[in-house]
Amino acid sequence: KHRDPTALLHSRQPATPHHRPPHRCLVLRMLSAVARRALTGAIQVVRGCGFLSSPAMVPRSGHQTLAAAPLPAVQGSPGVRQAQVLDHKRMLQVEWDDGSCSLYPFAWLRDNCQCPLCTLQSAQARSLLLTDLDVHTGMDQVQLSDNSKVCITWPDHHRSEFEPEWLRKRCFSPEARQARQEKLFLNEREFWDSGLQIPMADYEEVLHDDKAALAWLMALRRVGIVYLKGASLEQGQVARLSQRIGFLRLTFYGHTWQVQDKPSANNVAYTSGRLSLHTDYPALHHPPGVQFLHCLQQSQQGGESEVVDGFHMAELLRREAPEAFGILSSLWVDFTDTGSDYCDFFVQSKNRIIDVDGEGRVTRINYNNATRDSTLDVPLDQVQPFYSSLKTFVEVMNRPENVFAYRMEPGDLVTFDNWRLLHGRKSYVSNSECLRHLEGAYLDWDEVMSRLRILRKQVYGDS
Amino acid sequence: KHRDPTALLHSRQPATPHHRPPHRCLVLRMLSAVARRALTGAIQVVRGCGFLSSPAMVPRSGHQTLAAAPLPAVQGSPGVRQAQVLDHKRMLQVEWDDGSCSLYPFAWLRDNCQCPLCTLQSAQARSLLLTDLDVHTGMDQVQLSDNSKVCITWPDHHRSEFEPEWLRKRCFSPEARQARQEKLFLNEREFWDSGLQIPMADYEEVLHDDKAALAWLMALRRVGIVYLKGASLEQGQVARLSQRIGFLRLTFYGHTWQVQDKPSANNVAYTSGRLSLHTDYPALHHPPGVQFLHCLQQSQQGGESEVVDGFHMAELLRREAPEAFGILSSLWVDFTDTGSDYCDFFVQSKNRIIDVDGEGRVTRINYNNATRDSTLDVPLDQVQPFYSSLKTFVEVMNRPENVFAYRMEPGDLVTFDNWRLLHGRKSYVSNSECLRHLEGAYLDWDEVMSRLRILRKQVYGDS
């Protein structure tokens, strides 16, 4: 009757030959000892309810989604061979030791003078006021110092010095701009479907090891979901994990919130009903970027989790039904949320279900059918096209080949991108003796990315 | 030597005849007794530093900006005279007692069935799943019940009932949509310049009186700035005021933050230097919507405050220099903020200095010259146009006719729209015996608007 949980775990792991991770490439490891301990714990707790998890429902651990893209190699920046004033263009041309050239506009150089008068060093912030900047400045003189700094004298005799590496990092070439963009915001997303090999990590390791924490956040950004095992079975673990990053985001549902079947529920999540695929809190104009859900107690029957990759689904829709994509990415839909929890609230928003930036790239999914307002502020002739488009989108995201399903066990903690993923759960049988209980918390991407950058600097010395 | 502060106050008030506010029109009152007490208090404290405020610098109280736009009269909604199924359009036509007609698409009616199966009453949220909605549904039958509800029978025998008033509120006419929009988000902004008659209110009254609190928030939305007098001279008042709304927004600078001249300042604000006009925190992708600043101690010399109406300035720029407006509303500019405070942080954003929505309406100003990144990720040929455009914008906002200046005294608390206003301060002489000290806090507009809607409902019974 009691199957060996370690056998169960091993059967899920693909028989990949043991290999060392590539140089400078982070891998989220599934330490078998830790995993064994966590899984045993989970089954011990759940066994009291006469339940054994179905192997098919347990998230699979795999390798292809676990590896972070290697960072660009830190090159010793080349020195400056020559610096030349191009007066007619009002630019400085810097020729590097490797023969390449970069151009820097005078106004930009003056604006970014690093001297103590122009920059508050302790804050690394500009103290030069824009009213004091001559945006049409000339340049009196440029020299290379002995330590190969670029030294500029301005017409008002002010002097600026620039380190070659500092200049090189800020060069205006399209390639440099692209590389910086990716480094700062990690724009590359890996799309997935029901075949997702979910990135996994150990909860305590993420808390205590910088490399593990960095790998976690890199995968969270790239894949959109990371599964942590081995959290203790007490409330407070989502708060603890958010402190690892910085702080959580308080909302009207509290600092953290308890997903349980509650009388007079102020949210459909606080019932035992099925939750169709949704993002959390589209009733806010800036919905939480990241969500943590920690399983403290699972139901005996039902309550399985589902997720889809919303960015992937939006691209499928764009390909298969461009008109529907056009409507959902342009119509502003009302969402509403009223009630009382942390305090009383009456929240209203207008959001596009598929948010796109100026270039048409999908940046956020905003969709929760429960809080979609009965008020629909669109012209009458757009009502039917809206419903048809939404229906098509929901059909795409509900295709079995797109949905990744799993069942959380006590001690599991899932972290995911709430701007990208839609998540749901099957209905469950509520049982007062063994009440299903998840604890959740929100964070914002700005804070998460801040921690990611700091960890990358600490782990790699990468600035 | 000691001028009578009440005389000083009275001289600032225009000799307007006493008049009753119009019906249902809120007025922020400047109770003279309260003002006298507050101003006396301020001067008593400051007098110890040998300082007397200049009358010209004290914010003026006036009437034209204080009145909230009257709310649309609550009409007894007309009843339904007739309801007719337009099968070919798949719409229901409702004819009202006043002879007007409204059309409601079948799909929308079915989607918004208010029965306990389709709506979770306790959350006022939709429990009907989109997968269970037939967006091409027909309609079997429509009837008017005795209490004049519209009763619909659907082909699957499901029945829906709609209150006339509920339907009327959600009708799809352009006028109804416009009115709802304004009611929910109060889109109307009143532009101002140096002649601003700053809305004022009493701090304790706002805390304890719902009408005063509503008037405060309405003016904050409409004018963008409201000055509160009479806060006590202890830390914690901005937190207390944020609890009146709901909760404050934690950032890397803490729950609240102390604006003082600090050694090794991690922000230019924490020096005694001049701060040019800026919005706070454009290094976040979602900067705080509302800012509170409470004066605990003013400097003996300098430290006067300045504000401009950024939405107004952007419109001036659009008119006077459309190219500059085009550039600042389309170029994504890097902002950065690194350091340690609540915890360590390394924040990066890309924001447009003038944020506009799809229709080109200005929605947010994002500009702080101190945290504008030395990295400028724009093509080389756009660097000079960017600097010229920014220079023009800054020149517009610094024109004396556009800047409203005031001097905060201890006990004053200014509340303003950080998405709309730019604020600054003059440099001051730092004095360790009388250290200038403001305490600040942030909130987001979603939470502020939520409280505003609740207060409006409480004060007016307006749903």
Task: Explain what this protein looks like in three dimensions.
Chains A, B: Its cofactor is Fe(2+); L-ascorbate. Chains A, B: Its EC number is 1.14.11.1. Chain A has helices at 5-12, 32-47, 106-111, 164-169, 174-185, 203-208, 210-222, 237-245, 310-320, 322-328, 383-398, 445-460; strands spanning 80-86, 91-96, 101-105, 119-120, 125-126, 141-144, 150-153, 159-162, 200-202, 225-229, 256-259, 275-278, 290-297, 305-309, 333-340, 344-351, 354-356, 362-365, 404-406, 413-417, 421-425, 437-443. With 463 residues, the first copy, chain A, is an alpha+beta fold. In chain A, the strands form 7 sheets. Chain A has a 6-stranded mixed β-sheet with strand order 9-10-20-13-22-11. Chains A and B meet through α3, β5, α5, β15 and β16 of A and α3, β5, α5, β15 and β16 of B.
Multimeric status of the protein: homodimer
Q: Major sheet of chain A, described briefly?
A: 6 strands, mixed
Largest interface: A-B, 90 and 90 residues
Bin the helical content of chain A. Answer: 25-40%
Radius of gyration of chain A: 26 Å
The unreliable regions of chain A are 1-74
Number of strands of chain A: 22
Q: Which strands sit side by side, in order, in the main sheet of chain A?
A: 9-10-20-13-22-11
What proportion strand of chain A? 15-25%
State the shape of chain A: elongated
Going by helix content, strand content and strand pairing, the class of chain A is alpha+beta
Give the averaged pLDDT of chain A, no decimals: 86
How many helices of chain A in DSSP terms? 12
* First-to-last CA distance of chain A: 55 Å
GO molecular function, one term (chains A, B): iron ion binding
Catalytic activity (chains A, B): 4-(trimethylamino)butanoate + 2-oxoglutarate + O2 = carnitine + succinate + CO2
Enzyme class (chains A, B): oxidoreductase
Protein name (chains A, B): gamma-butyrobetaine dioxygenase
